[in-house]
């Protein structure tokens, strides 16, 4: 019997100088990363090396060099012990169309070694947990994309793993479906204590869902930080005010008054996504506590209503924006750090790096 650590230990995944070279491409390039229990996002553009990393961690593909341990188990020697303890939701559609979700998930549970009765019970519980009810008896071929993603999630969870790898679980889902899937992913950890490694190219999703985010690009580690560190507060204040008869554009009146007092103010920034009506928001550079007092007094002096005054937080996408800007300024200087693909804003806060 192979010894394995539990999710109470400090790390669930450790890689050291892990490389994977194909004849024409280096998919992973000396990647060293430690991943703790919780929900961790693995983000990178298409081709960054996410799926290759997952396959190596499952013991399904050999690394060219370096080491990797999952739950304390060595990927080169303990592949089957790792797969007993780890669930895997693959990226691509891999479901048989002619069988029902129940039949398929029972089959996967049996493949994982559960006896028949336990496999049926666990299947019923898991399908209910992912939100499939009466539909679970119908052939999968007639399911929507969202239902298929839930079946893939259920088969990853059915053998009660300590850790799951979810490869692009929100692919192909509409915004409501994505929100539901993200909620499910959070509950996998909060309700069952299962750690999650989830890949996505949508940064906004990871910001909302993950405790920790690992960013890779061209097989190299770009950054590994807690989500809080990525989204730490900035020195910029977001201020929103009401309009009045005397000042039909309250934000503009405040901007003029603050600018007159020597305070740097902009009406819009690239990081304003997700905030209501950015045209009515002011972004005020706060020199210190006195800036708060000045804003409050100026709003009161103009007779405007103060709707909000809060410190703006960084967004994960800014890591990419900053790297892109540095790359544009000095292309040779930023080879290892800058993502090779641009990101694009998407539905108010999610940024696509693919
Ligand atoms: N079996 C293989 N043979 C040759 N090259 C491969 C193989 N598998 C992956 N690659 C290459 O390795 C690089 C990383 O691929 P990988 O699938 O890990 O990226 P990814 O980040 O998961 O992207 P995607 O989300 O598009 O799958 C890519 O350039 C890919 O073409």
UniProtKB/TrEMBL annotation:
Q: Which UniProt keywords apply?
A: ATP-binding, Nucleotide-binding, Transport
Region Disordered: list its residue ranges: 331-354
Which InterPro entries did the record assign? AAA+_ATPase (IPR003593), ABC_transporter-like_ATP-bd (IPR003439), P-loop_NTPase (IPR027417)
ABC transporter domain boundaries: 13-243
Q: Where is the composition biased (Low complexity)?
A: 331-341
Q: For this protein, what is any one GO molecular function term?
A: ATP binding
Which Pfam families does the entry link to?
Answer: ABC_tran (PF00005)
Hey, which family's this protein in?
Belongs to the ABC transporter superfamily.
Protein name per UniProt: ABC transporter ATP-binding protein
Lineage summary: Bacteria, Bacillati, Actinomycetota, Actinomycetes, Kitasatosporales
């Amino acid at each position: 019997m192979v010894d394995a650590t539990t999710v109470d230990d400090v790390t669930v995944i450790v890689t050291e100088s892990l490389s994977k070279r194909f004849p024409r491409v280096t998919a992973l390039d000396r990647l060293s990363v430690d991943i703790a229990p919780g929900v961790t996002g693995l983000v990178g553009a298409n081709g960054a090396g996410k799926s290759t990393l997952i396959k190596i961690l499952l013991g399904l593909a050999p690394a060219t060099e370096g080491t990797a341990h999952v739950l304390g188990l060595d990927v080169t020697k303990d592949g089957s012990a790792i797969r007993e303890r780890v669930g895997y939701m693959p990226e691509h559609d891999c479901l048989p169309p002619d069988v029902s979700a129940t039949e398929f998930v029972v089959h996967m549970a049996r493949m994982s070694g559960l006896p028949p009765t336990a496999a049926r019970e666990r299947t019923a519980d898991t399908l209910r947990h992912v939100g499939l009810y009466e539909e679970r008896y119908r052939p999968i071929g007639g399911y929507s994309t969202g239902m298929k993603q839930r079946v893939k999630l259920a088969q990853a969870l059915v053998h009660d793993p300590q850790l799951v790898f979810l490869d692009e679980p929100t692919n192909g889902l509409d915004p409501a479906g994505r929100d539901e899937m993200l909620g499910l992913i959070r509950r996998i950890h909060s309700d069952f204590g299962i750690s999650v490694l989830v890949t996505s190219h949508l940064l906004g999703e990871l910001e909302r869902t993950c405790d920790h985010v690992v960013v890779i690009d061209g097989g190299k580690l770009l950054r590994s930080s807690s989500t809080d560190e990525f989204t730490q507060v900035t020195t910029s204040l977001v201020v929103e005010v009401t309009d009045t008869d005397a000042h039909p554009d309250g934000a503009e009146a405040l901007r003029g008054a603050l600018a007159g007092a020597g305070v740097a103010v902009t009406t819009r920034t690239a990081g304003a996504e997700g905030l209501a009506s950015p045209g009515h928001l002011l972004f005020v550079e706060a020199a210190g506590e006195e800036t708060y007092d000045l804003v409050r007094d100026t709003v009161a002096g103009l007779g405007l209503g103060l709707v909000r005054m809060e410190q703006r937080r960084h967004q994960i996408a800014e890591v990419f924006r900053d790297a892109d800007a540095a790359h544009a300024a000095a292309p040779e200087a930023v080879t290892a750090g800058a993502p090779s693909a641009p990101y694009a804003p998407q539905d108010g806060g999610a940024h696509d790096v693919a």
